[in-house]
Amino acid sequence: MARRSSNQVVVPESREALRQMKYEIAAELGLMVGAITPDRLGHTEFASELGSLGSSSGEAGTVPWAQLATRDAGSVGGYITRKLVQQAEQALNQL
Question: What's the whole-model pTM score?
């Protein structure tokens, strides 16, 4: 029996930023997950590079998040954590 994640978003307004970060990092790692498009990524450094990747979740070469290998999903989560720690360290260094 699979357990549900107990992670809770402390700041609900951050949900969209975390979602964008997830897709950006997946693109950095070369993972074609869902429909990765510039409008999904917003104005990130990868938006122009990903403009030709299609816009439907049934696009060839993409994998739904639920079918992504555990190792790949863990890599995305690890990179998210790494980036968030780096951002926090930079913010603390500026104080």
Answer: 0.60
